[in-house]
Design brief:
heterodimer, A: about 450 residues, alpha+beta, four-stranded antiparallel beta sheet, 6 helices, B: about 90 residues
Chain lengths: ~450, ~90
């Protein structure tokens, strides 16, 4: 039986939601983001491709989309950071009977604009957009997109025919931009009634016509709320920017080792800053040169720099999937990503330095970060200061004294098993660190091993 | 009992924990029997069949020892006293 742990979260904490092929995890830290408590696994055995945090209505709510090969996909929510999840009797997202379609997977859960707290969107496979205007109680298919005459000619990519990106307009226009693999970018300017392909300038290297009106395999698009018409796009081959809401795109692959990749995220405060994790090619879907590097532009794509400090730079054949790169809204921003090899990495300083947050997980498919409450009121302690050390100590103390953990430690002590367990953990931590020949990573793995979920440890021992 | 369902562990959250669900009625087919099941336990429905009413690809339904895939699918006829087992298929990774 899986031992599920929970985290205690308070106002001002940072939460990291991690979706894997075998369940979801909820991590929490304070503003220092140096140590993380781990809750989960939730929905063990289910692939969780979509997670979201939504506090627009004044209560923090987690959304998750666990999917089972056996029992189908569900949309669940939790108002207590994972201790209790809804498990709807009838599936909330379902195709109307007349469509003849059936839901295969939920790829994206996207809260709507800030001034519409009851609006949420979901992107699904087969590629379709669903919307809710009552806080997620009921959902309906966006017929305008489903009935688009080009939809029947969309083709599935390697992950399936999915609608994976939803960008409601932050400027309050009746505009939504979505991306489909493989269908391309579509945009509505009338609240979802009519949709137009917006792929001018985006390549489709896998088609005879390299610049079709639609059919591109777009992997991710990001948008900054301060610049709603500026979009950045990571394509199946190609990096692009649009300054007119997607009407046209221009190539910005200036100095990256590969313009193939999946993941992309924008900086929460700087519209010029975007992060990607390039992948070598569609045939060899691993990081180029066996180096795990995040690339960052700070000038809107005119140039890119590799961020490597703390990341393994040899024997790192990794893949970061389209929803597994994210940022939190603190200043400096935290940036996080998860790999198919089951490791979550984080930077508390906008990408300058990286540490392993959690390892030994099933393949990571989704990572989301948020601050509980008003992020602008959260003061981030400077690294190395007394405040930062106190902040870390508070986190450690909280972990030591959390009720269940305390009881468990007490039982272990009574059995006399604590030293053995510690030895096992230390031995395990050294394994992957040696193979990567990275001292920094070794240190991070050791610190994260303490909070590693027991299910993951059990799995790895097999 | 005219028909009895054997319910796998995952679905028992929706059958109040019951591993066997029995009905006095004698439904003529598996499809009719399943309607009885999710009329009483509606949470089972969307986990066993898709929106189009098809059995999910990785869920097997047996009448006795025989999978309904080989006996007419959901239209498989039922004899009084049949046992219907819902079983997750061997799949996944």
């Amino acid at each position: 039986m899986v031992d599920v742990r929970h985290v205690s979260v308070k106002e001002g904490d940072v939460v990291l939601l991690v979706g894997t092929m075998k369940g979801a995890f909820v991590l929490r830290s304070n503003a220092a983001r140096a140590k993380w408590d781990v809750g989960g696994p939730y929905f063990p055995g289910h692939a969780v491709y979509a997670l979201a945090f939504d506090q627009r209505s004044g209560r923090p709510r987690l959304w998750a989309a666990p999917g089972s090969d056996h029992w189908g996909a569900q949309l669940c929510s939790s108002d207590d950071f994972g201790r209790h999840w809804t498990n709807p009797v009838a599936a909330l997202i379902r195709f109307p009977e007349d469509t003849g379609a059936s839901l295969k997977r939920i790829w994206q859960i996207r809260p709507g604009p800030a001034d519409e707290p009851d609006t949420l969107y979901a992107g699904v496979e087969p590629a379709a957009l669903f919307e809710s205007h009552d806080g997620g109680e009921t959902w309906s298919l966006v017929r305008g997109l489903w009935n688009h005459p080009q939809r029947e000619r969309w083709q599935p990519g390697g992950g399936g025919l999915c609608l994976h990106t939803i960008l409601p307009d932050p400027a309050g226009r009746a505009r939504i931009t979505v991306a489909v693999s493989t269908g391309g970018v579509y945009r509505t300017d009338d609240g979802g009634h009519s949709w137009q392909p917006r792929n001018h300038g985006v390549r489709a290297d896998f088609l005879p016509d390299k610049h079709p009106e639609f059919g591109q395999c777009v992997h991710k698009i990001v948008q900054h709320p301060a610049h709603p018409d500026r979009l950045f796009l990571q394509n199946h081959w190609g990096l692009y920017r649009s300054d007119n809401g997607g009407d046209s795109w221009k190539d910005i692959a200036n100095g990256v080792p590969s313009d193939f990749g999946f993941a992309m995220v924008g900086h929460p405060h700087d519209p010029e800053t975007v992060y990607i994790v390039p992948i070598e090619s569609d045939e060899f879907r691993c990081t180029p040169d066996a180096k795990l590097r995040v690339f960052r532009t700070r000038d809107g794509g005119a140039s890119w720099e590799a961020l490597t400090d703390g990341l393994p730079q040899e024997h790192a054949l990794e893949t970061v999937l389209r929803d597994a790169l994210t940022a939190d809204p603190l200043n400096p921003a935290g940036v996080y990503f998860g790999t198919r090899s089951g490791e979550v990495w984080g930077s508390a300083d906008g990408g300058h330095h990286w540490k392993s947050v959690l390892a030994g997980l099933p393949p990571v498919v989704c990572v989301r970060a948020a601050v509980v409450g008003d992020a602008s009121k959260v003061r981030v302690p400077k690294p190395g200061t007394v405040a930062a050390r106190a902040s870390r100590a508070t986190t450690s103390r909280a972990r030591r004294t959390s009720g269940k953990a305390r009881a468990k430690a007490s039982r272990a002590k009574a059995r006399g098993t604590t030293p053995k367990r510690k030895a096992r953990t230390a031995k395990k931590s050294r394994g992957p660190a040696k193979s990567r020949a990275s001292a920094a990573r070794s240190s991070a793995a050791r610190s994260s091993a303490k909070s590693r979920p027991r299910g993951a440890r059990a799995k790895k021992r097999k | 009992m005219a028909v009895t369902f054997l319910v796998p562990g995952y679905l028992r959250e929706f059958t109040a924990g019951a591993s066997r669900v029995a009905f006095e009625e004698s439904p003529p087919s598996v499809r009719d029997a399943l309607v009885l099941l999710w009329t009483r336990h509606p949470g089972v429905r969307d986990r066993v069949v898709t929106e189009t009413g098809e059995t999910r690809p990785h869920v097997n339904v047996f009448v006795g020892d025989e999978s309904i895939r080989w006996t007419g699918g959901l239209d498989t006829p039922l004899a009084p006293g049949s046992e219907i087992a819902i079983v997750p298929a061997v799949s996944g990774g």
